Amino acid sequence: MNKLGYALRRNPAAAVGLVALAAWVVVALVGPSMLRFGHTAMDMESQLSAPGLNGHALGTDALGRDILARIVYGSRSILSVALLTSLFSSIAGVALGFSAGYFGGKIDAAFMRFLDILMAIPPLVLSMVVLGALGDSSVGALTLIVSIAYTPATARVARSALLSCKGLEYVDAARLRGESHAYIMFVEILPNAIGPILVEVTARFAYSIMMIASLGFLGVGLQPPTPDWGMMVIENKTVIREAPWAVLYPSLAIASLVIAVSLISDFLAKVLIHDE
Amino acid sequence: MTNKPLLSVRNLSVRFPSPDGDVVAVRDLSFDLGRRETLGVIGESGCGKSTLSYAIMDYLSPGARRSGAVLFKGQDLLLKSEREMREIRGNRIAMVYQNPYSALNPSLTIGEQLDEVSRAHRGLGKEAAREASLGTLRELSLGDPEGVARRYPHQISGGIQQRVCIAMALLCRPDIMILDEPTTALDVTTEAVILDIVAGLKERYDMSMIYISHDIGIVNKVSDRVAVMYRGEIVEHGPQERIYERPEHPYTRALINCMPRAGVKKESTTLNTIPGYVKRRSADEDGCPFAERCVKRAPGCEDDYGLAEQEPGHFAACGRAYADERPWTREAEAAASATGAEPAPAGADERIAPAAEGGTEPLLSLRGVGKFYRNQKKTVRALDGVDFDVFKDDVLGVVGESGCGKSTAGHVIAGLAAADRGSISFDGGEIAGSWRRRDRRALREVQLIFQNPGRSLNPSFSVQAILERPLKKLLGVKDPAERRRRAVEMLRKVDLGEEYLSRRPRRLSGGEKQRVALARAFLSSPKLLVCDEATSALDVSVQASVLNLLNELQAESGASYLFISHDLNVVNYVSDHVLVMYLGRVCEYGRRDEVVTPPYHPYTEALLSAAPEVDPARRDKPIRLKGSPPDPTRPIRGCPFAGRCHKKIGPVCDETPPPRLALSATHHIYCHLQAEGLQGAVRL
């Protein structure tokens, strides 16, 4: 803990990122209970009202919905989907990448070629096509498809992290003790390969936020009336001249969250990979 | 050295800033280097030897601070600008590093790299530069300089690479050449050749040398004077033979006595050790740097300290420790320290008596074992039809140059790799080749100790987890309290305490890590312990204590060892039987005393002759091997050693596999020569 404090003091940017992320988590957890307006409630008296007017701190959109409320509610979906996505894609990526690297040979070749094929399709395109075809953009479907789209990159990182440990003698020592492959991979090697993997997980977290926002923007993300930051940007694009705040605030929300997570990711890379 | 010194270092200190205050790497150090003089610098790792050389060259990392003076031909190098230093580096003071491969540019041919030196430093034209390069290579006794010049670094062997690096340093005709462990990465036979070359350089090139090494045997071969460094200070310096014969400082004496020297055997001698380890030195620490580890420490001696002339030309920082023993002789010291478990019977009896009791019933037998590594079209014959036995309660030492198959043999026996051919029987039955097919009993009874303990202990686990896992996995000890009890008991046996349980490997010193690795191996009461260069990565004082521990554990447990090492003196010290290997085959096998005395295989003779000799008086006519081991992918019809053998008799050596020549019931050699032809003068 002391070491973490020391490292954070030397990397003030990371501290800023951590504070910003923590703030968003708090907003998502307790924010909704403190709001004056519901996120779907339409205030017909004050459509497109400017920030601060009629009790709408960040103004309203064309339907008179409170921007603040929609951002606060939206933080829940985006944080949970992003968190689940980075979690699932790293679990799948570590499992695939570790097996490929550990067993090597034909298994490695087969796994890696399969992942190469997945990787050849841009994640955004893949997600759009699948979600469009499914016609279902529930939280579950969104999480699943984004996780799959991000698995190959994580698998590559996990594989190379494993390969850097695989040749070390403690792995041989474990083999000569008759340990199972799973034990060697996940108990002996994983703790020593965790640095690059954790960095990758946080980077994926940031990418997932971007991806979900992009999908919302393109209209294949979460469906209305669920508030989604990306969707808010596109919904209010037409009124950007009259009510720039309706686009500005959700964009700021996306940017602040992505930058916060990226700063943390950079910090982890510095501490976990380069300092050792 | 009556003439004016070429290089005069005066009160040189080097400090590195660190979060816990400055670390002093070199402290108040002074010495002179005369013309045509070689100064050997010895000490354990972390004593500041390399920092000293970098400080002279102004090659220190940013942040390091130097003070004092380095006078080269009367000018202080510390006051020179970077531009002026560039004129001096390479031109006047050249350096040769430990690892020749990383010192050479892999994308340029040797010729291009050598020519560049003459062209950049001496302004020679293309032809003249090439001429100079080839001439220098020839002077370093390289057979085919034109061929070498055409090749890239990866196409030539380590020994030739290092000669190229030396040639590169020589091309500018420097006044001083600094060699920083130039042979540490090389095989003994190659090392011997390089040392011969280095020893002749200063006369031929009229220059002075500073030769840095951790091995006093090597330093003795090339130096006129020796300086012993400890924690950044010179604690003793003087003429080379005086340092060896009459060391005054307790550290020098301890360091020399730590090394398993020629003829020192486990039956008669327990190796000296130095308690503790080399600590970093902080800026505010004063007084004798060695006091904490010194066996001769007396009240008040920490302050009564400073280099003083003990006899003409021989300086030591401590003159009192052994003052009462003068005149001191090495023999007396050896006799006094002969306090082994089994005191040796005097004189010749020792040779005839079996080295240890037991040692006749085979525990492990390899018959016709082959291990091939194939890639694309080529096959490397790492082991090519190897037969030998390891006896019960006996230590078999395995020696040979790198690539001779000794590590592969260890891995095949331990089960890391399955043999492709032949059979291995262990304790009365066949044993499965690979760990995948070995049962728990086999895994338990054959244990492996690796060269690098930093890599064989999982850095994420505590010592407790490292020790308890085999108890659970191999011995099926279910009760956690029982596991802990046994782990602590084993830690005590390797001289570590219970407090080590919670530590991670990162917080252990090299010696402590290897002790933990030994504890892990012995927890499962192995019948056979394979030690693959188990002490090679350790400093001499630590090596001595680990070797002593290995001997103790062996005597106590009755386990057999397969002790693999490139260091003949170490093998000679620990072994009961010795196996000499070359290119995946057995050259010689027998009781230790039979192997290290004539008659022997020509390769054994060459190895013995190449071994760095600590005692300068014990030097015989050296045998130097030509070239390097042949390409292991090429099939060999005759004797693998034929191409380099100094006793080759003719085409029969190339065409017919050498017969097994039994010299006694326990000793055999694979050679076409008869016993009379295998005599030789070298002995260990």
Provide a brief overview of the structure.
The complex is a heterodimer of chains A (276) and B (684). With 276 residues, chain A is mainly α.
Defining key terms:
heterodimer; A: mainly alpha; MetI-like fold; B: alpha/beta; Rossmann fold; 3 domains; eight-stranded mixed beta sheet; 24 helices; 24 strands; globular
Structure explained in plain terms:
The complex is a heterodimer of chains A (276) and B (684). With 276 residues, chain A is mostly helical. Chain A has a single domain (2-39, 54-274), classed as Orthogonal Bundle (MetI-like fold). Chain A is built from ten helices and no strands. Chain A has helices at residues 2-10, 12-30, 67-103, 105-120, 123-134, 139-166, 169-175, 181-217, 229-235, 245-274. In chain A, α4 packs across α6 (139-166) and α8 (181-217) packs antiparallel against α10 (245-274). The longest helix of chain A has 37 residues, at 67-103. The radius of gyration of chain A is 22 Å and the shape is elongated. The model of chain A has no long low-confidence stretch (mean pLDDT 82). Chain B has three domains: 1-92 and 181-189 and 204-344, 3-Layer(aba) Sandwich (Rossmann fold); 99-173, no CATH class; 354-454 and 526-684, P-loop containing nucleotide triphosphate hydrolases (Rossmann fold, 3-Layer(aba) Sandwich). In chain B, α4 (110-122) packs across α5, α17 crosses α18 and α18 crosses α19. Chain B is globular and about 75 Å long. In chain B, 32% of the residues lie in helices and 22% in strands. In chain B, the strands form four sheets. An eight-stranded mixed sheet of chain B has the order 6-7-8-3-9-10-12-11, with helices on both faces. An eight-stranded mixed sheet of chain B has the order 18-19-20-15-21-22-24-23, sandwiched between helices. The model of chain B is unreliable at 338-358 (pLDDT under 50). With 684 residues, chain B is of the alpha/beta class. Classes of the chains: A mainly alpha (276), B alpha/beta (684).
